[in-house]
Amino acid sequence: MTQAPTPTADTVRRLARTLLKDGAGDGGAASAGPPVRPVTEGPAPVTWWVGPRHVLRLAPDPGVSARRRREPRLRDLVRPHVPVALPAGVAQAEWAPGLLCTLDTRLPGATAEEHTVSAVGETDLAGLLTGLREVPARQAETLGAPRVSPRSLAALRGAAADAAERLAAADEFDPFRLNRLTPPAAVQLAAQPGTAVLVHHALTGGHLLVGADGRVRGVLGWDAAVVGDPAEDIAGLAIAVGAPAAVRAATLAGYGARPCLRGLWLARCDTLIHLAGALTGRTATAPALLRTRLRRAWEPIMLERVTDLRAADAADETP
């Protein structure tokens, strides 16, 4: 595979000038193009602010390019069903052979890593989960969203147990906390047949835009959307905004105890595995951020009683 070139400010400025037709309407002179700056610092940033109203994203490989080609159609399918804003596509082009760049509108708000979601914001998240369940899954598949099988929580627990031991050796985590998810409970919390919905599948704090009032103003990152296990989005919210807020939002959206607990433990196992990977150099994400995500996912919730899921099953059958 050909290695992608390193994007520079000049590269991005030329692309933006072309996509915006010489910077018209975005605060840039026609000759120089609009002002640009990377969204995050790094040696090869792939997401850039373009003037005050746009965002340019550079796909780093052909796989990401393919997902982003279908993203505008998926956003248009989702938009009528959810109470939060989604970016609108402005233009697409190739910034290198086989690599797509997309220019989108910029949404207001800061990320959930910067602002805390309020109680009212949790109702926005509930509306997001409710809306995703209402999106016709077959239509989403027609637009290119792949159908993904649910993960095995039992297998994930085994990997998390190994990670917890490595973290214990580094004085990062008490592995006995994982014993609250017993192997039989992990089997009980398997995904139920016939529950697949459209799943955002990347509800990280960086993809949730939150206002100063704690309301969720927008959701980014729709190129990762799949048809699959709704507990994955509950897990994403547990990592992004904390386990209690995620479970409250999922409950408001009509999810019962089983998917809520499944999402909670998916998040907890994932955060253990990711932090252990970072400490051994297998994950590029900063350990400080992964520690924050682990802390959020392991916040206690009132629902943590998996000894008898029969009542939970009955609750999940209620529309």
Determine the fraction of residues in helical runs and give it as a percent range.
40-55%
Structural class: alpha+beta
Total DSSP helices? 11
Q: Which band does the percent of strand residues land in? A: 5-15%
Helix and strand sequence: HEEEHEEEHHHHEEEEHHHHH
Please give the largest β-sheet. 5 strands, antiparallel
Shape: globular
Uncertain parts: none
Task: Walk me through this protein's architecture.
This protein is an alpha+beta fold and 319 residues long. It is 42% helix and 13% strand. The chain is built from 11 helices and 10 strands. The chain has helices at residues 9-19, 62-78, 119-134, 137-142, 153-169, 183-188, 231-241, 243-252, 257-279, 287-297, 310-316; strands at 36-38, 47-50, 54-58, 89-96, 99-105, 110-111, 197-199, 208-210, 216-219, 226-228. Helix 8 (243-252) packs antiparallel against helix 9. The longest helix has 23 residues, at 257-279. It is globular and about 60 Å long. The model has no long low-confidence stretch (mean pLDDT 90).
